[in-house]
């Protein structure tokens, strides 16, 4: 229930959550979160496994029913939306485990990002194709266009998924552990990509376990535990916060940070 | 009161048939559409042997159980295991297991059909004699008694066993999540084979007892029960043995009542209509657990 | 005994009259057939026939039985040189294996083959009803066995060599009336067309005619397997007789459960219980009577001779299907002889001509309603191990 | 050729009607809806057409149209009620629906002809008509298989949650599927009935579900082309196998089981896989990896081809 006022420094919140709670029976996966996402920033969510991060992402995309609370995007309350309406508002996401159509090649998987958001017709088809090709180029999977996902490395599967989300040309991009299972070099590529997207004004919310990457990439961090927001603010400060260290990081990681 | 007794007997027959199917479905995720054929063929095997030697009830049941177990394990090994090995996702595997079962079922059924020239078969040559008990205006045969006790006994025992034993835990884990199960050190393949053998044994038991109870079996009997069993399991809620027990007696009760109301040709409509309504109110069946959704 | 014989003759006459009336009504064109017994086409030396029915699958017993009967008849026809010394009948058989499309496809193929002069059609009701319009349109005379549903005998070219069960079920009603068993309960399979027809309509009508009362009637489905409830209710009400119109396994169970419920009255079945299909019910089936169009236990000369020949050829006694096939083949042979013409049209005219007159077959005096066979039927009793004629 | 056609016209016809029935079951499966309502709709379409044709003197085509529309409408209503049920629960509900249709037909008195069904409903439909109708249906389905529409339907089936996250209205797809499946099933029923001239309650049975599923599994569930292959195999197999007579149903069972085991994507899937492999071989080399990809992540090696992967080794997939 901790309402924080310190976001008010930012001029415009693209997204606002007010007292959002998601309970599964007796399990309070998310329990009264209030926060906002400033436009054009990268915000990270930290928290141990089971702290409710992914449930929160699910709540934002309206896949998970809310127990209470309101969600606003671009100033409009959309908590009552069906999940499929959320992308039409300009919110795109990736998943913790990569979700691709195994029977379709990479290009088609990326095109899927544009399919329901563009109208039919030849012009729209060409537009979708362009958007998909751009997205693939940015994520570095353009040379894989005709390959099927089951022939790809894990890192490349991640790229395809991010490309699909970018092709949706969202105003808010939710990344659920986008670098899980990637090597250092690949993680840096993702970081670079996120920063270049930010430069274009895309707001991003990222859930990650790699603290170093979060500190390097994010403009601010939210730390969660037991479904509640414990600290939020400038990444380095958040990471140093004793409550966060106790809940999540452990002594060793603190040294590393 | 007599109606209750009749429901109990009919329900126990349904239950015995459905138990094996439910066990395999809710633990190792195999919806075996050859279950009905195994049921018929096991009873038929016992019938063939009984034509040559006059055997007692336990021996006939044993033959039927063994044949059922062997057929079911063989089906699992030669067909279902192979299908799972070659499947990439659950939906297509589920579907192909279903079709594979239908294909496998055609074989024993064709053999029985040919051998009996579609005439009903039974254990007329057995040493077992049906006796009728009568007390307080209620009638019951010793066969009904055996059917009820076996049906309910095995159902309860199976439920408890699944709940309690480590093996049961392993099995349930397969049903819920095969990866966790393999982490727990459960050998999936062997376990699946064992489960299918038990399920087949139950089909054999059900087959033999049904022949004793109803005196005869037709070659189409297995198919007719298959759909009913499918309905009972879904009605009770997949994954719950208690649900199967409930489903079997609920369907038997409904059928008995419909017959009592002289609506004999409406039986399927009423009972399946009820199942339809139940699913609308409780989409996961009466005893089914609500899926906990996690993202 | 006197009365029944007279009655039989009367029936036969009326039936024959009705047949002729229908024939006349069917259009003047066919009248010509009656005169030219000499035949314009003559009898070919090789007459090809096509048999399209189930010889595998769930109703294979009917197709196989009929086939055996027909083959025996063909042998005899040839041996007797019934159609002349050099005339040979050949029968090509194809299995429909329970598939409607296969039946119509094979029939179409037979139609396309101009060598095929007549067809013996499917034994399954729906297969038969599907091919009936096809053969009608093509003008190929087709004789069906079994296939007791409506829509099979629909015109000049469709014939049926099996009397519908309801048409001779009256002997069961009469038997009950003669024995004074007037209070009757009925259990019938309402999803099985033949039984639905008798259970819902024909038996109540026959009961009325013979002064019986249907005190209770229970409809069940083909997938009903347990009859405890019905058996107990019947045992409690103690009607004089119970009529069971059930498929084979159902009848065994119902008879057993009636016995277990303590019912001791007369049980009446149907021809489905023939061929030892109630053997599994053991003592509970003893005393069951049922009307059939043919029983190997029949004692008239023609039947005894047929049973003898059949047993010599196949090693076991003929069933009703064999008898129907046998009589159907003879019907065809008589038809060819009667019209003196083995062309499709000739056979068609011949079949109608023979039908109008009726003839004596192994099923007794055969009469026809139009192109549809009628027999008197015999009532047989299952004594627990074998069939014998039911004595009145 | 002409002689061949004359002799086999009915089998050709049966192939087409079987295909229609299979398509009415395949479409929902392709959208991830385990619906067997197509069989019930076959009954509704068939009975409606037959009743109109024989009892109300309606002409062939209006009778077919009304049967089709009624089946489609009722199936859509069914879909509105049950589209949220999952997996085999929905399957059970739709089987219940189909069986209820059969019972209603059995008890429909003189209107439906009771247990004996309706006879003499021989409409004026030719093979050419059936072919044209089939072409129409297939054209519609083909559109739903290619391009963006096809991709979206695949997503709705494979991963409804993903589909929603991509902005696809999953519920609407599922509901419309019921409508389309009902229309196709109804058309199949009406056409088949007026071709055969008969329909009985015994036909509207689980057996029909089995036939449709067998067609789909043998041919391939991903495309109408698969259903066509399956329909051809299933309709012609008995003709081919008839020489084995008594062994026919046993061999049939074996073939179906073998197809289920060894052809995950049916005959069509096998063909597609072969084509894909052939093309992959013709590609100069596997695409050159960029510099970063040289650094492989642990456990991230490419997985083996789909056909050899087993369920146990898949990650995710279902959740």
TrEMBL record, chain A:
Keywords: ATP-binding, Nucleotide-binding, Transport. One of its GO terms (molecular function) is ATP hydrolysis activity. The keyword Transport applies. GO terms for cellular component: plasma membrane. InterPro entries: AAA+_ATPase, ABC_AA/LPS_Transport, ABC_transporter-like_ATP-bd, ABC_transporter-like_CS, BCA_ABC_TP_C, P-loop_NTPase. It comes from the Bacteria. The keyword ATP-binding applies. Residues 15-251 form the ABC transporter domain. This is ABC transporter domain-containing protein. The lineage of its organism: Bacteria, Bacillati, Actinomycetota, Actinomycetes, Micrococcales.
TrEMBL record, chain B:
It comes from the Bacteria. Its main location: membrane. GO terms for molecular function: transmembrane transporter activity. Keywords: Amino-acid transport, Cell membrane, Membrane, Transmembrane, Transmembrane helix, Transport. PANTHER family: AMINO ACID ABC TRANSPORTER PERMEASE PROTEIN (PTHR11795:SF445), BRANCHED-CHAIN AMINO ACID TRANSPORT SYSTEM PERMEASE PROTEIN LIVH (PTHR11795). Belongs to the binding-protein-dependent transport system permease family. LivHM subfamily. This is Branched-chain amino acid ABC transporter permease.
């Amino acid at each position: 229930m901790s309402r924080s006022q310190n976001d008010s420094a930012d001029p415009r919140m693209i997204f606002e959550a007010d007292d959002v709670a998601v309970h599964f029976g007796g399990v309070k996966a998310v329990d009264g979160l209030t926060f906002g996402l400033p436009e054009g920033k990268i915000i990270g969510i930290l928290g141990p496994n089971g702290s409710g991060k992914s449930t929160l992402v699910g709540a934002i995309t309206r896949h998970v029913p809310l127990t209470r609370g309101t969600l606003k995007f671009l100033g409009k309350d959309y908590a009552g939306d069906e999940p499929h309406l959320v992308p039409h508002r300009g919110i795109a996401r990736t998943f913790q485990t990569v979700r691709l159509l195994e029977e379709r090649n990479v290009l088609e998987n990326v095109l899927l990002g544009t399919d329901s958001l563009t109208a039919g017709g030849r012009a729209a088809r060409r537009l979708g194709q362009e958007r998909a090709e751009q997205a693939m180029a940015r994520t570095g999977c353009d040379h894989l266009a005709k390959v099927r996902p089951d022939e790809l490395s894990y890192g490349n599967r991640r790229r395809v998924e991010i490309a699909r989300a970018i092709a949706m040309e969202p105003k808010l991009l939710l990344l659920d552990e986008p670098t899980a299972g990637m090597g250092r070099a690949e993680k840096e590529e993702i970081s670079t990509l996120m920063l270049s997207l930010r430069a274009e004004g895309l707001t991003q919310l990222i859930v990650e376990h790699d603290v170093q990457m979060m500190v390097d990439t994010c403009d601010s961090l939210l730390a969660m535990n037991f479904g509640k927001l414990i600290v939020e603010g400038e990444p380095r400060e958040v990471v140093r916060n004793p409550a966060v260290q106790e809940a999540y990081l452990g002594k060793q990681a603190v040294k590393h940070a | 009161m007599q109606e209750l007794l009749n429901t109990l007997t009919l329900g126990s027959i349904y239950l015995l048939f459905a138990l094996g199917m439910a066990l395999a479905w809710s633990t190792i995720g195999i919806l075996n559409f050859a279950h009905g054929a195994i049921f018929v063929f096991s009873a038929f095997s016992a019938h063939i042997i009984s034509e040559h030697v006059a055997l007692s009830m336990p021996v006939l049941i044993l033959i039927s159980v063994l044949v059922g177990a062997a057929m079911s394990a063989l089906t699992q090994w030669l067909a279902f295991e192979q299908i799972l090995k070659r499947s990439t996702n659950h939906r297509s595997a589920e579907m192909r297991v279903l079709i594979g079962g239908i294909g496998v079922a055609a074989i024993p059924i064709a053999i029985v059909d040919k051998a009996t020239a579609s005439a009903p078969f039974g254990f007329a040559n057995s040493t077992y004699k049906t006796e009728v008990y009568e007390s307080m205006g209620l009638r019951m045969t010793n066969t009904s008694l055996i059917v009820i006790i076996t049906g309910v006994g095995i159902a309860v025992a199976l439920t408890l066993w699944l709940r309690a034993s480590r093996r049961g835990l392993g099995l349930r884990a397969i049903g819920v999540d095969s990866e966790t199960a393999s982490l727990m050190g459960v050998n999936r393949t062997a376990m699946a084979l064992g489960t299918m053998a038990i399920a087949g044994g139950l089909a054999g038991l059900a087959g033999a007892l049904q022949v004793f109870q109803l005196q005869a079996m037709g070659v189409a009997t297995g198919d007719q029960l298959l759909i009913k069993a499918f309905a009972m399991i879904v009605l009770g809620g997949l994954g719950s043995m208690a649900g199967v027990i409930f489903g079997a007696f609920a369907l038997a009760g409904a059928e008995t009542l419909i017959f009592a109301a002289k609506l004999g040709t409406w039986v399927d409509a009423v009972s399946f209509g009820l199942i339809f309504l139940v699913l609308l109110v409780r989409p996961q069946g009466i005893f089914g657990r609500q899926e906990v959704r996690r993202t | 005994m006197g009365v029944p014989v007279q009655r039989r003759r009367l029936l036969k006459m009326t039936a024959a009259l009705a047949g002729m009336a229908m024939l006349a009504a069917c259009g003047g064109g066919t009248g010509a057939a009656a005169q030219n017994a000499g035949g314009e086409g003559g009898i070919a030396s090789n007459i090809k026939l096509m048999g399209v029915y189930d010889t595998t699958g769930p109703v294979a017993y009917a197709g196989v039985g009929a086939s055996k009967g027909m083959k025996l008849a063909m042998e005899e026809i040839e041996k007797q040189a019934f159609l002349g010394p050099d005339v040979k009948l050949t029968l090509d058989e194809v299995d429909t294996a329970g598939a409607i499309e296969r039946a119509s496809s094979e029939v179409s193929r037979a139609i396309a083959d101009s060598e095929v002069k007549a067809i013996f059609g499917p034994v399954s009701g729906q297969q038969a009803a599907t091919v009936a319009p096809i053969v009608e349109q093509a003008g190929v005379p087709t004789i069906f066995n079994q296939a007791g549903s409506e829509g099979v005998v629909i015109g000049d070219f469709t014939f049926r060599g099996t009397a519908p069960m309801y048409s001779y079920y009256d002997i069961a009603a009469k038997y009950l009336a003669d024995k004074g068993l007037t209070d009757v309960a009925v259990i019938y399979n309402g999803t099985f067309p033949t039984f639905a027809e008798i259970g819902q309509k024909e038996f109540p009508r026959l009961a009325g005619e013979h002064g019986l009362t249907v005190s209770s009637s229970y409809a069940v489905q083909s997938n009903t397997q347990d009859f405890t409830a019905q058996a107990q209710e019947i045992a409690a009400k103690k009607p004089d007789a119970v009529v069971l119109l059930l498929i084979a396994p159902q009848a065994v169970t119902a008879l057993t459960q009636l016995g277990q419920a303590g019912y001791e009255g007369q049980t009446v079945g149907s021809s489905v219980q023939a061929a030892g299909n109630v053997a599994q019910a053991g003592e509970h089936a003893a005393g069951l009577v049922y009307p059939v169009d043919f029983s190997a236990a029949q004692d008239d000369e023609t039947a005894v001779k047929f049973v003898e020949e059949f047993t010599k050829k196949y090693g076991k006694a003929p069933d009703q299907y064999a008898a129907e096939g046998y009589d159907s083949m003879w019907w065809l042979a008589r038809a060819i002889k009667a019209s003196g013409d083995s062309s499709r049209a000739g056979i068609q005219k011949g079949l109608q001509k023979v039908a109008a007159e009726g003839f004596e077959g192994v099923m007794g005096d055969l009469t026809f309603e139009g192109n549809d066979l009628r027999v008197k039927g015999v009532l047989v009793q299952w004594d627990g191990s074998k069939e014998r004629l039911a004595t009145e | 050729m002409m002689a061949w056609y004359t002799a086999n016209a009915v089998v050709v016809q049966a192939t087409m009607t079987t295909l229609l029935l299979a398509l009415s079951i395949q479409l929902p499966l392709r959208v991830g809806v385990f619906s067997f309502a197509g069989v019930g709709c076959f009954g509704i379409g068939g009975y409606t057409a037959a009743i109109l044709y024989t009892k109300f003197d309606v002409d062939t085509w209006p009778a077919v149209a009304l049967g089709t529309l009624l089946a489609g409408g009722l199936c859509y209503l069914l879909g509105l009620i049950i589209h949220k049920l999952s997996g085999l629960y929905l399957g059970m509900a739709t089987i219940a629906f189909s069986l209820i249709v059969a019972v209603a037909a059995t008890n429909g008195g003189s209107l439906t002809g009771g247990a004996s069904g309706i006879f003499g409903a021989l409409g004026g439909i030719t093979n050419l008509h059936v072919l044209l109708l089939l072409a129409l249906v297939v054209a519609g389905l083909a559109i739903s298989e290619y391009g963006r529409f096809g991709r979206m339907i695949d997503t709705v089936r494979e991963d409804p949650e993903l589909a929603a996250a991509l902005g696809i209205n999953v519920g609407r797809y599922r509901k419309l599927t019921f409508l389309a499946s009902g229309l196709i099933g109804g058309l199949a029923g009406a056409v088949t009935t007026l071709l055969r001239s008969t329909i009985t309650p015994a036909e509207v049975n689980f057996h029909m579900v089995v036939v449709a599923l067998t067609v789909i599994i043998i041919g391939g569930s991903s495309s109408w082309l698969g259903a066509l292959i399956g329909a051809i195999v299933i309709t012609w197999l008995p003709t081919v196998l008839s020489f084995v007579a008594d062994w026919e149903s046993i061999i049939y069972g074996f073939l179906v089981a073998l197809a289920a085991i060894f052809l995950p994507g049916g005959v069509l899937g096998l063909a597609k896989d072969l084509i894909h492999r052939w093309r992959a071989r013709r590609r100069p080399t596997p695409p050159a990896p960029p510099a970063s990809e040289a650094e492989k992540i642990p456990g991230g090696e490419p997985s083996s081809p789909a056909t050899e992967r087993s369920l146990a080794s898949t990650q995710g997939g279902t959740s």
